[in-house]
């Protein structure tokens, strides 16, 4: 595929790696913010190819991993209502709630549909006027416009049976929270290319300046990631702290203004709980009251008591880059992809799952 | 492969519980001519079982087939069910001979759909040179099945030169995949509600027995293991094999033959093709000494045009499958906890 | 996070009396519908990045080459002469 | 028959789609020890099929089992599935040897229930002296199955003295039923929602192969046909046979062995026991010359204590089964259009 | 079973038959009003055992057969509603509606439960408060009290989701209609023992007197039926026309007053359409307006256009005893139990089905 | 029409504070619940005729014998001496 395959060239990758090795003179810790980048690092075996002096730290950029336990529980509760069709992206289905995950709810008979797009959910709502169709709208800034658009479509079609259960998280406040942590030892960031596609880069300049960290907006193919690492390393070695755009073929400085408009039409900013991390101010979206009819939280008023996270799970520290998964006492023992104790063990983007697969741990 | 047989005239359009009750309707269905397409002297006896003779060692295999939708690009559940068991027998080094055929039909299935499935079964049997000799038809209430499930079991005589067993695998053995991977799974995905896309991707369902038989003619004992990477894809079969032989497997992503559209569809949905199901594909572990000849022979076969050597058995990293990535990095290939789900992340 | 892939717009259909533009996008030969509501100026033959059924960015062809030339431009790898082979055809 | 095996410790309570995906969970289920109860050298090879040798002529049969509820008075679907195919093979005059076992599980099935079914399968295999040598486990989405469906197929060697074929039946042959009729169907009815009643009625599911084998030892070719009147009951099997041999059958209601409670349950629901399903019953068409000896031998067998001669083959009224009623009237026995439904009329 | 098996004694049956033969001096046509008696005649092979001079004519006493097409269509319509559980006796499921039967509706996904008792339907309604449970309440006077009782139970339990779809028919008006038919040639009647169990015999005295026909209230076991026939024949030969009670072990002259009370609490008499026969005045029950909440017809207001009966089906004439099934042009040809054109081909009580089985017609 | 069979009351349970009497009735060894609301005077050990879950009549034992004696009483079958064998035990 054009604009993808070219960025997987092994020869050029080798040259990037050589250049990184040549450039590095001291140890650096670089956080790739986005789970998609983690996935690329793992799938392509990049971590082991990097010089030992470059340590990649896997950030909180996996919406699946940071969706609060309580929202998962609510989604499960709704899905089990006889009258509700719950629609979701596929990767949410294995995320553990306090008692079960959505796959298990499905096994109990819940009508749960895996969709490629929230716009499909609107179509399902049209086709089933006698059912309540709820889309489990998780995601970062990248997905927020599409989820907003589904509400706009449903509103235009005057559907009374469509709503979204949101758990939207925003990247810049999370980066700030990570840096603010006392124990933080991150020298530079690969920012999430697709988030910036929507929001642009403007939010990163003050961050970079204030905290004196290089931030490189980076894509997802191996050459993208390698170039992004090289750009961070070059800044670090040169003692610079700027925002650079590795992913300029996709990301414009200003982002996508139309998409931003849609976000602001439907959503407003709020404090948000990040699973494993806790509340981060102004780090999430909720549906504006004007569109309250499309807000599953308002519509169904589900009260589900907050359940405690598994106390052994140190996913918060892992997502802040303070610990590596194998430093978790449960890693590979009680916690495995078949039985995840925390969300980072769920998707192949989660740091724990990535390490689990990468390290080749095998179940008896 | 589908013959244009006209469907017998029936006074019912859908299959109902009565057709599975054992009474008049069951007999009506059996006598309707619908099953005549499968006719052969052994089946026509219509006793509680079939009676025949097989010489020498034999293989026996079973599989139940459930696929949604039952009609998909490149085939339907009928040929899938025949090819699946034919191929499992071939993987044992057997020449498939006789099949049993058992339907679990959800009431409401259109007879015309059932007919189309039967025609596909007939075609697949003819292709493979096997006969359905015994069968069963059950009907379940609406909502207690999914249109139709098919079980086929089969028996065949072990090829005189075959000695297929994971125990024969040794370090240095070459691993050959017979064609493009992930086609079946992505053909199904392309018609799954909520995920569908337009493509020319077809399921690779096909019978492999003739291909295997001629390879056994030529390479006999040098073929150490044959296995078809269906559910779980090639990754799962390779990992299972590595675990069972207590040896490692080295492979490289660039060696994996895959159709462009299939690869694109995997990118679209965030799926890894090494975990996607195949139906007309096999993996052979062969002695390194014959690997190139084997590949050459396979390239000449209609089912092996895209065959490739994808890996080597190694004493290093026992039980582990290590894949070199597109850019030359290394990645451990493990099994997935369950079915691969489309990702947004 | 945020799986998104680039594809080429094959055709555009107007829905709701022009309120909604839906594109048929080809991804390496397979096609899928994507909303163009966030890319008002995208047109047939443009490459767009699609995420969960919505096109969110037009691919900038010029910028796309830079990754292949970056090392060269660093001026530190003189021997990198075969850069053309990495370019999209 | 059920051994008190402790269930292996598992970290899952219900079976989910992942267990059928071919990935880690599938292997986890396979490796969990759950299937160890069925262990034997051929099965333990875990290849795509089983390899073994059978001498002489063989029989091959298949059936899919769906019963609701899956646990019923007198048994469960597991032993039903084993006995069903064992009996079909026995009806062919074969000594059943090897079975395939294929599960279609609806997600949500409790592992403890699955375990109980497996234990019943093990017990039934041991009773019958057969081995499960190849298998398959599939999982369907909730609402697309009914807890569990089981297909068993089986092979066996034809008994050296057996010559079972409807073609051997001639006028004058005696028709013998091996025991009380309608027990299985009414055991199921007794636990059907909306119809349930309290009784001591147990399903008659049992393996008949040892009984048949010793009858074949003694009576060989004088046994013309063996058949098990499962779905559709004895009426359907007799009518089918009359049609296929182009001869008539005379029988009398008073000769039909039936348990009192079963008869009462049929009265309660307005069902005719001759159409009710049996599982551990067979009907033999034997040469009149040996009929009494055959019956005597059967009476000594644990599965034949209630055996009775119920009818005679006749040249009159070809293809018709005529039953003398309780009061001596005559009634034509035909097949039902579908499953018998409880009546109020 | 006590009070059943004794009435199946072959020796005594033979003696009854001999006595009938001895008694008869000329041809008589006797209608067994009730389908249960038809069933007994067929199952026991009694018809062929009777002297040729005694012709049994199968009456309209099969509620399954006389339930109007339109009510079947309504039941099917309701069953196919997503929100409705339709409960029914088993034998209604194969009765043809204008387009399909209930079994076929079930194959299309309708939630239809076969029950032994209407009281079970009330239990199902309790268990599924989110569903509408409709009991398809067909039957003669025998079944009316049980159906009424289900409403009484539901009322007592204050269920809002239980209703009955009634098609209740009354025997005496039907007998009257049969006799009134000009072509009628029936000499005597076996009245339906179980109907009289509820209603008593009082209604038959005027009928017997007015029309000068013997009426013997008769049971269902072979000896009952034989005795009933003998009693009718003896009256006919003696030129008498009285009401006699063969079934006095069960039937009291006054019937069951408690049951009658329940019927009158819930139902009121109305004109009723009998399938194949047409409207007979005062021959049915409908739910009283006071219990309208439990009347599915009122509750769901289903309007289904009257569909024409199959014009080739002569079931009306058959049920009035004017024609025998084999005089129907469709009998055994287009019309078979697997594909009934009319209701009498459905249940083994229906005259056409009884003849079909009895004559041993076999499908290719 | 109106399938109904006789059974023996094994036990009686009062429900709804006595408003409803439910019997457990034995039919040749199998048992099923039946409502006694239409037979207020039916008691344990009585035989009752049950139709669709409701007991609708008590069996009259005396009358029950008459079918066996009817021919005899007609005075026309003198030879019918073995009538006792038809009587319920
Ligand atoms: S290994 Fe498991 S328990 Fe430990 S941090 Fe990761 S997800 Fe949590
Ligand atoms: S045979 Fe069929 S068509 Fe004729 S009267 Fe009877 S039910 Fe009607
Ligand atoms: Mg739901
Ligand atoms: Mg059989
Ligand atoms: Mg198999
Ligand atoms: Mg297979
Ligand atoms: Mg069968
Ligand atoms: Mg296989
Ligand atoms: Mg069979
Ligand atoms: Mg069988
Ligand atoms: Mg299998
Ligand atoms: Mg319904």
From TrEMBL, chains A, E:
Keywords: Coiled coil, Iron, Metal-binding. This is Hydrogenase formation protein HypD. Pfam families: HypD (PF01924). It comes from the Bacteria. PANTHER family: HYDROGENASE MATURATION FACTOR HYPD (PTHR30149:SF0), HYDROGENASE PROTEIN ASSEMBLY PROTEIN HYPD (PTHR30149). Residues 226-253 form a coiled coil. Belongs to the HypD family. NCBIfam families: hypD. The keyword Nucleotidyltransferase does not apply.
Automatic annotation (TrEMBL), chains B, D:
Residues 170-321 form the PurM-like C-terminal domain. Coiled coil: none annotated. Gene3D superfamilies: PurM-like C-terminal domain (3.90.650.10), PurM-like, N-terminal domain (3.30.1330.10). InterPro entries: HypE, PurM-like_C_dom, PurM-like_C_sf, PurM-like_N, PurM-like_N_sf. It comes from the Bacteria. Residues 47-157 form the PurM-like N-terminal domain. Pfam families: AIRS, AIRS_C. Belongs to the HypE family. NCBIfam families: hypE. This is Hydrogenase expression/formation protein HypE. It comes from Croceitalea marina.
TrEMBL record, chains C, F:
Transmembrane segments: none annotated. InterPro entries: Hydgase_assmbl_chp_CS, Hydrogenase_HupF/HypC. This is HypC/HybG/HupF family hydrogenase formation chaperone. NCBIfam families: hypC_hupF (TIGR00074). SUPFAM superfamilies: HupF/HypC-like. Belongs to the HupF/HypC family.
